[in-house]
Every structure is written in C-alpha cells, then in structure tokens.
Fold:
Amino acid sequence: MPRDALGVVTLPVGNPVVSGTAISADVQNATVADLASMIEDSLSRSGKGGMNAAMKFADGAAATPSVTFTTEPNTGIYRGGAGDLRAAILGVQRLRLTTTGAVVTGILDVTGAASVGGALDVVGNLSVTGSMGITRPDLPATNIVASASSGAWPGTSAAAAVPVTGLSVSITVIGRPVVLAVVPAFSGSNAEMGVIAGTTNSFASFQFTRAGGVLSTSTMTALATQYNTVGSFIQYDLPPAGTYTYTLQAFTSAADTIAICRHMQLVAIEL
Structure:
C-alpha cells in the first residue's frame, strides 16, 4: 500500500530514481500503479464516488468550524471537547449536543407538535407554533381535597379563635402553590358565612391555619344589630412538599356578636 492509515505515502522500490539510471519498466509501471492507486483512494471534489470509511476532521472552533462552507466559513459543525458536538452560525455557538442532551442558545421555534420525554433546557425564548403535547405526570393522583360541610354550626362569640366544625382538610403536596377556599357546600340548605352584630358595631374574624400556625385572617364588620355575609373566603399558600392539615377558625370582637359559617365547605387545591 503506497498510503498507510495515517496518510503517509511510501515510494515503491526503485524510487527515487538516481540520475543516470536506465528507464525500467518495472520501476516505471510500479510508480504509475501507485499514483493511480493513490488518486483512486482520494476524494473527488466534484462528488465522484463516496467515502468507504468515516471521514475525520480537525476539532475546529466556533469561529472556525471543521465542517463549513466556502461562502460562509464561520458557519458549521465542530468538536467542543470530549463527547461534545457543536454547531455555530456566523462564529457563534447555537447548538450543543453532549452525552446528557442538547442545549439550544437563542430562540427555539417549534412548528408542529413537540414531544419531550425528559428535561428541556432552553437558554433564551421558547416560541412554539402548534401543540407541544406536554403532560404533567408528576402531579399527585389526588390534588383536590374537600372537607365535610360545616352544617348548621351555631357559630361562636368567643374572643379566642375556635375551629369551625367540619372545616378541616389534610392534603399531600409536591411543593406547588395551594389554594384554600371556603365555599357553599351545596347541601340543599342555605349557605352563609359572616357576622351578626349585637348592640354595638362589631366584627367577626375568620382565619386559615396550617399545622396550627395562622396563615391569614379576614375580618367582617357589621353595624349594631345588623347582619353581614360573604359568599366565600379564599387564601393562597406556598408550602414545601409534604402532608399538611388546614383548618378554618373563627372569633369575634364582642360577647354579643356571632361569627356564623353554616353549610360551608373547605377545599384545598394544589395548582
């Protein structure tokens, strides 16, 4: 073989020819045969014939890719390191493929459906035309929990917070926001939540608790001997992953004032 695996050419025996040596058919024919073999083993610039083995390129860089174009030599593909294939546009890296996945630098514009079976790391804007078909398999099987109805709870006039009968729920969350809502229980009876004032202007307060700690308090005021109600009470919570018990408590500002919460229900929803 005149050319070895490293591309080194070995001259046939009798070459180089010493000055004054008579022309020899053996030497001349062997030389021509070697030249023909090397030319045949070289890649045609006009695309005559294809490669019989993998083509190896220099590593290149973003400004000088190893696979590039005559009219745009700073656009192409290059090797960034071990197991690291990159693509550059006008000398700037835009795509990187490694053993852990792909990284796109810039805008990823997807036209049509996109199915992602793992993590998608995009540096820049993600513009999608069409459906991505994304599901949320990490949501828990039950992420909405509702309490029993408060029924005909007689209310409280206590100055210290007391639990509203039945309005307690336990929910297991994975760390997403939780919405707490006190809503009508749709039990067929009139649902109401509010305050009945005594002989003076007064108020009733309702508060959500998580694991015994108060999250927030909402106060409703009524003028003397009057009655004031609301349709619902909503609170947002941001707990870490875990299992929590939420309750609704009530208290008043005067002994002749009543905090009422009849036929209502406490619902916890993890978003």
